[in-house]
């Protein structure tokens, strides 16, 4: 099997694997985000109790810092809820849902994402496939945010023959697609999501020159 080709999976087995991977991702995000923040807040509150008697001025400053960390924890939980909540793609359409996702990245991460729609491929996809493609785009964006150190992302929708193609490019640090450390970049999960839609994934990336993820899925005739 050559690079860029996807193995054939039993869809029920793959669906279970994707569900379990999603649960592991949620557990990691909760542990690395809100859980650690709340643990730190608890420790600082214990220290604050002592400072109230010994140094009231410093205690007041520490209370302000703790309050800021509480706000950060609330925002982290809100981001997780945004990622988990059901997306009414069948109501607003794939493109509109991605537009909302792009707005979120600009607002919360200060990461500009340009959206170019040459064809509204969502109109030729079933509601289930629209949701699956939305989640795949979301996963690619999350991986770029975590690993690429990019300052600009571009998402392009177009139709090529009987396939819908979504290309996501970034100007980040790039990587070697043929030499990805185990568990890095989430490439395996992204490939499996593409395979789940009977689609394919192609990656072009060079160190220091960014990356392009191209997902191709068959359209409903």
From TrEMBL:
It is an enzyme of class 2 (transferase). The keyword rRNA processing does not apply. GO terms for molecular function: ATP binding; phosphorelay sensor kinase activity; protein dimerization activity. It catalyses: ATP + protein L-histidine = ADP + protein N-phospho-L-histidine. Keywords: ATP-binding, Kinase, Nucleotide-binding, Phosphoprotein, Transferase, Two-component regulatory system. SUPFAM superfamilies: ATPase domain of HSP90 chaperone/DNA topoisomerase II/histidine kinase. Residues 29-221 form the Histidine kinase domain. GO terms for cellular component: membrane. Coiled coil: none annotated. It holds the Pfam family HATPase_c. Its EC number is 2.7.13.3. The keyword ATP-binding applies. Gene3D superfamilies: 1.20.5.1930, Histidine kinase-like ATPase, C-terminal domain. PROSITE patterns: HIS_KIN. It comes from the Bacteria. PANTHER family: NITRATE/NITRITE SENSOR PROTEIN NARX-RELATED (PTHR24421), NITRATE_NITRITE SENSOR PROTEIN NARQ (PTHR24421:SF10). This is histidine kinase. It comes from Alicyclobacillus ferrooxydans.
């Amino acid at each position: 099997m050559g690079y860029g080709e996807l193995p054939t999976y039993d869809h029920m087995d793959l669906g279970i694997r994707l569900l379990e991977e999603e649960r592991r991702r949620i557990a990691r995000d909760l542990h690395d985000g809100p859980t650690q923040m709340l643990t730190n807040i608890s420790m600082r509150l214990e220290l604050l109790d002592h400072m109230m008697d010994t140094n009231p001025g410093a205690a007041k400053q520490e209370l302000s810092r703790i309050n800021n960390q509480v706000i950060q924890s609330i925002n982290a939980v809100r981001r997780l809820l945004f990622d988990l909540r059901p997306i009414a793609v069948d109501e607003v359409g794939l493109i509109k849902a991605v537009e909302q996702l792009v707005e979120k990245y600009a607002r919360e991460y200060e990461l500009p994402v340009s959206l170019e729609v040459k064809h509204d491929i969502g109109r030729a996809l079933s509601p289930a496939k629209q949701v699956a493609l939305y989640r795949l785009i979301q996963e690619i964006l999350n991986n770029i945010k975590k690993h690429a150190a990019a300052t600009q992302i571009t998402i392009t929708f177009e139709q090529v023959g009987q396939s819908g193609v979504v290309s996501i490019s970034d100007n980040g640090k790039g990587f070697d697609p043929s030499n990805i450390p185990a568990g890095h970049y989430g490439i395996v999960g992204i490939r499996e999501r593409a395979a789940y839609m009977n689609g394919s994934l192609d990656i072009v990336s060079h160190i220091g020159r960014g990356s392009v993820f191209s997902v191709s899925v068959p359209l409903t005739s």
